[in-house]
Specification:
This protein is of the alpha/beta class. It is built from 10 helices and 8 strands.
């Protein structure tokens, strides 16, 4: 055996008969092996005085029982999108690795566009959606609830009660919750931005664990981005075909902040035209 093969076997198996014979005949390998053993003894002596913190076992068990959630961007590959020629009709979260058949017919264009925009949104690179939805199959009340929810700005929340007031049904908070729970196009219509009156997140059609993660994602992203060289401000995502260079990019949490800095609204994404659902509605 060569010296490299002997050293590899010593690390893996310890000194067997052939390895011992090589060590007796090779001074360099014998010196290397003595140094390796000395390092192991030193490390063992040092580690025997290191005590694990009391919470370590609990954290290990929690990680085994509840493994870390996958990155948000990875969820884009698990979305099954359905559409008609008029717009999106359904978005489903399928198990990881499941096949997602392509959308047939005239709705395929909308489905492919929505898939691209959803991947950008989940990666923190988009703050609005530019694809229409088709809610014609839903009851009128459900359509009113979802259309109101679609007006909740990126990064903000409203309560079920506020949404009920916004549609003129102040006593229908429970019915509003039911309509949101059956939202056929979650994410695009942001029902995750509706929470309970006590501040807790409440239920969510794609899974209650995902709702706070979506809210945290939006809280970490500036929804408006300006181009300093031109003085225009866009909704995040409008610039995706031609990204603004980082040195020319200015982030804004509110459109009012951009206006105060003398930035003009983009004529394509029209951030000034969005009608936000009022905040703090009371009966």
């Amino acid at each position: 055996m060569t010296c490299a093969q002997v050293r590899e076997r010593l690390r893996a198996e310890g000194p067997g008969k052939a390895a011992r014979a090589h060590l007796e005949a090779c001074p360099r390998c014998r010196q290397w092996w003595e140094a390796e053993q000395a390092s192991e003894r030193h490390l063992a002596t040092a580690l025997q005085w290191v005590q694990a913190p009391p919470s370590l076992l609990g954290r290990i068990l929690a990680a085994v029982e509840h493994p870390p959630a996958p990155p948000m961007a990875d969820l884009g590959d698990r979305l099954l999108i359905e559409a008609t020629e008029a717009g999106l009709t359904a978005i489903h979260l399928v198990p990881e690795g499941a096949l997602r058949p392509p959308v047939p017919g005239p709705g395929r264009t909308w489905a492919e566009r929505a898939a691209a925009e959803l991947r950008e949104y989940l990666a923190g690179e988009r703050a609005f959606f530019d694809v229409p939805w088709d809610l014609r199959a839903l009851p009128l009340f459900s359509r009113r609830v979802l259309e109101a929810a679609a007006r909740i700005p990126f990064g903000e929340v409203r309560t079920y009660g506020e949404l009920a007031l916004a549609i003129g049904a102040p006593r229908a908070s429970r019915a509003v919750g039911n309509a949101l729970g059956s939202n056929p196009v979650p994410l695009v219509i942001p029902c995750h931005r509706v929470i309970r009156g006590d501040g807790t997140t409440g239920g969510y059609g794609l899974g209650p664990a995902l709702k706070p993660r979506l809210l945290a994602l939006e809280a970490s992203v500036s929804p408006f981005v300006g181009r300093a060289s031109t003085g225009f401000v866009c909704r995040l995502g409008c610039d995706r075909p031609r990204p603004i260079p980082e040195g020319d990019r200015v982030h804004f949490a509110r459109l009012a902040d951009a206006r105060a800095a003398d930035f003009r609204p983009c004529s394509l994404c029209r951030p000034h035209a969005a009608r936000a659902l009022p905040f703090g509605l009371r009966a």
